[in-house]
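ugh ok fine here u go
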Amino acid sequence: MSHKLILDDPKLNFSAAHFLIEHDKCSRIHGHNYYVKIEIFGDLDNNSMIIDFLKVKKIILESIEHLDHKLILPMKNPAIHVNENGNNLDIKIKKTEKFYSIPKEDIAQIPIDASTAECLAQYIYSILKERLNVKKFQIMLNENTGSWAAYGDL
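structure:
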């Protein structure tokens, strides 16, 4: 048996644009208001807490800040070719022949295969795994009301 801490705060959010290469509707650039929820499992410390939830909120906000109001670009996707062009990134999508030239400051280049909610949840988990001193946790990411992706130690 262990305790569980759940943080489901509407302030744990970011807004971002993305696209999915091989999806009819979602291959176009579009955006979501993402919400992050976390479940942390563990034993109580000397203060009778698993971890201070204020500390966890701060760490989550710091960990997702670089995604807010950006175009999420999945850099591990072999169909995406990126070239620097001054202050812009020229992005060519091999399978669709789409081309974008976007200011670098407007792009979050993320080491994932696709910008799906599942891959983003895993990416956020990997950042938090390095920063949270807890035994087990799970990240849930909401991109639409009622639609969640999860990744964690369960």
